[in-house]
Design brief:
- The complex is a heterodimer of chains A (257) and B (268).
- Chain A is built from 11 helices and no strands.
- Chain A has helices spanning 3-30, 42-54, 57-88, 91-104, 109-120, 124-148, 152-160, 165-203, 208-217, 221-249, 251-256.
- Chain B has 2 domains: 5-89 and 167-266, Rossmann fold (3-Layer(aba) Sandwich); 102-165, no CATH class.
- Helix content of chain B is 40%, strand content 23%.
- In chain B, strand 9 and strand 10 (228-234) form a beta hairpin.
- In chain B, helix 4 (107-117) crosses helix 5 (125-135) and helix 8 packs across helix 10.
- Classes of the chains: A mainly alpha (257), B alpha/beta (268).
- The structure holds adenosine-5'-triphosphate and magnesium ion (MG).
- Adenosine-5'-triphosphate binds at residues 29-30, 32, 34, 52, 54-60, 207 of chain B.
- Magnesium ion (MG) binds next to helix 2 of chain B.
C-alpha cells in the first residue's frame, strides 16, 4: 500500500474513533446514566460553546488564557535559552550547576505556588512567575543539552575563521542546538497552558480556568464542558502549530535521514 | 609552473623566508610528549607532504601549524610573526568533512560562512559563492544540504569554504582518506590545479605514500613516540604531474621505495 493511502487510512480511523466517542457520550447523556446536572450531552455543550462565542464571553476568556500562556511561555523561552546557553557552553558550569538543576527540576511547580502567592499576591505577576517557572525547565534542560552537544570540530572551524563570540553563538551553537531547543519549547507550551488554568483558578484571574471554576460552582455543566472543550482545542492547536513550526525550521534535518 | 618558478626565483635570490617555521617545537598533552623538538621551514608556495605511522603526531603537527595548539616550548612562526591563535590566512581542511560542515546550511551557506567571517558585504557573496562552487566542481549544487551530498562532494565543499578564506596556507589532514580510489585521484589533480592557480602554500598530511610523492615538492616522514622528523625527501618530479606517467617514472619509484623502507622500519 502506498504511504499516502496508509496515512489517509489512519486519519479516517482516528476520525471514526473520535466520532464514536462523541456518539457514546451522547448516548450516555440521553439515557441519563449520569445526572444531566453533572454531564451534559455533546449537543448541549456545543450549544453552550456557540452561545459563548456569539455573545463574546468565551472569546474574552480564551484571550485571557492565551495571554497568560503566551507571556509565560515567552518569558520561559527567553530565560531558558539564555541560561541554558550559558550553562551548556561551559564545561565548568555543566559540572557544578547541572546537578543542582536536576535536584530542582522534579520539584512540583504546585509547591512554589504558595510561595509565589505569599510574595506577589493573587496578581498577574504571580501568574506570570508561576507559569514561566514551570515552563522554563524543559527549555532550559534541552538548551543545556543542545549546547553541550555541539560538534567540537565546528568550534575549530569558527576559530580558524576568527569568528566573533557573538557570531559563534548565533551561527554555530544556536542552530546546532535548535532541534533540542524547539523540542523543549514544544513540551513547555503544554506546561504553560496547564499552569495558566491553575493560576486562573487559584487567583481568580480572567480566563478559561476561572470560567470553568465558576460554571462548576453554579452547576452550569454545559458551560463547564464548553470551557473544557475549548481548552482541549487550544492545547491541540498550539501543539500542532509548534510541530509545524519545528518541521519548517528544521527542514535541513530531513536531509540527514 | 607559477609556483615552481616563484620558488626558484626565491632560491636564486637566496633569502626566501619560510612562511611557516617550526623552531624547536615540543608539545606535551596530558603529560605525554607528543611532538619533540621539531624544526621545520615551509617556503611560500611549497607543497609539503607529511607521512608517518598512525599515531606518530601528523595531525598534532598540523594543528600546531594551524594555531589550534600552542607549543609547550619552542615556537611556530607565520610570516615571521609568532602564531598565538588561528588566523584566517591559514585554512584547514579536516579529514572528517562530515563533522566540519554545518548540516543546517546548504552548500552555498557553508561557503558563505567563510565570506561572512571575512566581512564580505552580503550583496557580493552570491557571485563569489557560485564562482567557488564552480572551482571545486560543484556547480548547480548550491541549494543542497551536506547530508544530500556524497563524501567526495562534501570534501569538495569543505575545500571551497577553505578557498573562500583566500588562504596563504592550506593545511590538509588526510583529506581524501575516506574516499574511493577514483574520487581520490580526481581530487588530487584538482587540488594540484587549485593550488597552482592560487599559489598557496600547502601542508598535506596523508598515510598514502604514493599520494605524498605524487603531490609534494617535499615529503617528510615522522617517527613516533615522540613525533620527530625521521626522513626528508626532495621530490624532483616535473609538474604538471600526471596520474599515469608521473607514477611510472624511475624517480617516483625510487622515492616510493625509500619512503616505504622508512615506514616499515618505524613500524618494527
Ligand atoms: N588531546 C590529546 N591528549 C593526549 N594525547 C593526545 C591528544 N591528541 C593526540 N594525542 C596522542 O598523540 C599522538 C599523536 O596523535 P595524532 O592524532 O597527531 O596522530 P596522527 O599521526 O595524526 O595519527 P593518525 O594517522 O591515526 O591520524 C597519539 O599517540 C595520540 O594518542
Ligand atoms: Mg591524524
Amino acid at each position: 500500500m502506498s504511504r499516502k493511502a496508509t496515512i489517509w487510512l489512519w486519519r479516517a480511523a482516528s476520525f471514526a474513533v473520535a466520532a464514536s466517542f462523541i456518539a457514546l457520550w451522547q448516548l450516555i447523556a440521553n439515557l441519563k446514566l449520569v445526572s444531566p446536572v453533572f454531564l451534559p450531552g455533546p449537543d448541549r455543550a456545543w450549544a453552550s460553546l456557540m452561545r459563548g462565542f456569539s455573545n463574546g464571553d468565551l472569546w474574552s476568556k480564551l484571550a485571557g488564557t492565551l495571554e497568560h500562556m503566551v507571556y509565560g511561555w515567552l518569558v520561559a523561552s527567553i530565560a531558558g535559552i539564555a541560561i541554558g546557553a550559558i550553562i551548556g557552553s561551559s564545561k565548568l558550569m555543566r559540572t557544578y550547576v547541572a546537578p543542582s538543576l536536576e535536584f530542582l527540576r522534579p520539584l512540583p511547580v504546585s509547591a512554589i505556588i504558595p510561595v509565589a502567592i505569599a510574595m506577589l499576591g493573587l496578581t498577574q505577576a504571580m501568574a506570570l512567575f508561576v507559569i514561566a517557572f514551570g515552563a522554563i525547565w524543559p527549555i532550559m534542560l534541552a538548551t543545556i543539552h543542545g549546547f553541550a552537544a555541539v560538534e567540537p570540530r565546528l568550534y575549530e572551524v569558527a576559530r580558524s575563521l576568527q569568528m566573533s563570540r557573538l557570531a559563534v553563538i548565533f551561527k554555530i551553537a544556536l542552530p546546532s542546538a535548535s532541534p533540542d531547543i524547539l523540542a523543549g519549547m514544544r513540551l513547555s507550551v503544554t506546561v504553560a497552558l496547564i499552569l495558566s488554568v491553575v493560576c486562573e483558578i487559584l487567583a481568580g484571574l480572567d480566563g478559561l480556568g476561572h470560567w470553568v471554576l465558576l460554571s462548576a460552582r453554579a452547576f452550569r455543566s454545559a458551560d463547564l464542558f464548553a470551557g473544557v472543550i475549548l481548552l482541549g482545542i487550544t492545547g491541540y492547536v498550539t501543539s500542532v502549530a509548534m510541530s509545524m513550526a519545528e518541521h519548517r525550521l528544521l527542514a535541513w534535518q530531513a536531509a540527514q535521514r | 609552473m607559477a609556483i615552481t618558478a616563484k620558488r626558484r626565483e626565491a632560491d636564486a635570490s637566496g633569502h626566501s623566508d619560510p612562511q611557516i617555521a617550526f623552531a624547536g617545537v615540543t608539545l606535551e598533552l596530558g603529560g605525554k610528549t607528543i611532538i619533540e623538538n621539531l624544526s621545520l621551514g615551509v617556503q611560500p608556495g611549497e607543497f609539503l607532504c607529511i607521512v608517518g605511522a598512525s599515531g606518530c603526531g601528523k595531525t598534532t603537527a598540523l594543528r600546531l601549524a594551524a594555531g589550534l595548539y600552542q607549543p609547550t616550548s619552542g615556537r611556530v612562526n607565520f610570516d615571521g610573526q609568532p602564531m598565538l591563535q588561528p588566523r584566517r590566512e591559514i585554512a584547514i581542511v579536516f579529514q572528517d568533512y562530515g563533522k566540519a560542515l554545518l548540516p543546517w546550511r546548504t552548500a552555498a551557506g557553508n561557503v558563505s560562512l567563510a565570506l561572512e567571517a571575512g566581512g564580505m558585504p552580503a550583496a557580493d557573496r552570491p557571485a563569489r559563492i557560485e564562482e567557488l562552487l564552480r572551482t571545486v566542481g560543484l556547480p548547480g549544487h548550491a541549494g543542497k544540504y551536506p547530508a544530500e551530498m556524497s563524501g567526495g562532494m562534501q570534501q569538495r565543499l569543505q575545500i571551497a569554504r577553505c578557498l573562500a578564506q583566500e588562504p596563504k596556507t592550506l593545511l590538509m589532514d588526510e583529506p581524501f582518506g575516506a574516499l574511493d580510489a577514483m574520487t581520490r585521484q580526481g581530487l588530487q589533480d584538482e587540488v594540484l590545479a587549485l593550488v597552482a592557480a592560487s599559489g598557496a602554500t600547502v601542508i598535506f598530511v596523508t598515510h598514502d605514500l604514493d599520494e605524498a610523492i605524487y603531490l609534494g615538492d617535499r615529503v617528510i616522514g615522522l617517527l613516533p613516540h615522540p613525533g620527530r622528523i625521521g626522513i626528508e625527501l626532495q621530490v624532483n618530479l616535473p609538474r604538471p604531474r600526471d596520474q599515469l606517467s608521473t607514477r611510472e617514472q624511475p624517480e617516483f619509484l625510487r622515492l616510493r621505495r625509500q619512503l616505504f623502507d622508512f615506514i616499515k622500519a618505524t613500524e618494527q
